[in-house]
């Protein structure tokens, strides 16, 4: 049954133009910034690297991921299908994990075409060599970042029956958790004392750490902890519905 929910969530995304538009927009925005705009073009870089892509992608995900997940629970509540879902032999955790797994599959499909960026940069490099290990590490970090945004967005979707409200709350929450702690750490009263520890609470800190190509256990624990905490809140929320 959990597989059925995962399949339903996956099919929901590609059953309308919304899913394809989100996919095209993600690739289009990244393509324009990375290959057309002189200020951020990879082609004008002196090094064969995808650093600019991994700097840009989180900002695009702040909008794309909430757009993918905004219907997860909001539509179920609005249409009334959640009542039917609760009659199935499923626990709240199975429902949440099913929906979350479906979103993770969508995100995997979303990221897969960007591998062409690596192939392109490698083909255009002077020696035909790129930092493969660093790029793999960065992709792991980016996928974990997207997974965290997905968990947060699904959690926000469980609080409302309005998809637009879900999108706005999710986007704002992801933005705050991504750069909010870094901004707070720069307040003069924290500088030199607590600034480093405050930065460690933010997603940006751990994403940059793992994007250097070194997969640190502390970063993995952080991402997994945020995901589990978000899904736990989701389970508690839908259990009260």
UniProtKB/TrEMBL annotation:
Residues forming coiled coils: none
Topological category with respect to the lipid bilayer: Multi-pass membrane protein
Cellular compartment(s): Cell membrane
Keyword Membrane part of the UniProt annotation: yes
Primary site of residence: membrane
Protein name (record): ABC transporter permease subunit
Pfam families: ABC2_membrane_2
InterPro entries the UniProt entry points to: ABC-2_transporter_component (IPR051449)
UniProt keyword list: Cell membrane, Membrane, Transmembrane, Transmembrane helix
Spans traversing the lipid bilayer: 12-36, 56-74, 95-116, 136-156, 163-184, 220-238
Organism of origin: Ferruginibacter yonginensis
Highest taxon above the source species: Bacteria
């Amino acid at each position: 049954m959990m597989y059925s929910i995962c399949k339903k969530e996956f099919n929901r995304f590609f059953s309308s133009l919304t899913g394809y538009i989100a996919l095209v927009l993600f690739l289009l925005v990244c393509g324009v910034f990375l290959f057309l705009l002189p200020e951020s073009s990879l082609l004008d870089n002196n090094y064969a690297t995808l650093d600019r892509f991994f700097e840009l992608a989180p900002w695009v995900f702040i909008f794309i991921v909430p757009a993918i997940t905004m219907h997860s629970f909001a539509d179920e509540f609005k249409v009334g299908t959640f009542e039917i879902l609760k009659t199935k032999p499923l626990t709240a955790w199975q429902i949440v994990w099913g929906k979350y797994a479906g979103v993770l599959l969508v995100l995997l499909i979303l990221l897969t075409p960007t591998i062409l960026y690596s192939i392109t940069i490698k083909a255009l490099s002077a020696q035909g060599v790129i930092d493969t290990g660093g790029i793999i590490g960065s992709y792991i970090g980016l996928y974990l970042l997207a997974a965290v945004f997905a968990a947060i967005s699904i959690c926000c979707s469980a609080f409302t029956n309005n998809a637009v409200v879900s999108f706005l709350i999710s986007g704002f929450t992801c933005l705050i958790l991504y750069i909010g702690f870094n901004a707070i750490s720069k307040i003069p009263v924290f500088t030199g004392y607590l600034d480093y520890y405050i930065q460690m609470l933010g997603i940006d800190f751990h994403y940059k750490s793992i994007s250097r190509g070194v997969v640190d256990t502390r970063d993995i624990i952080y991402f997994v902890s945020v995901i589990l905490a978000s899904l736990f809140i989701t389970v508690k929320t839908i259990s009260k519905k």
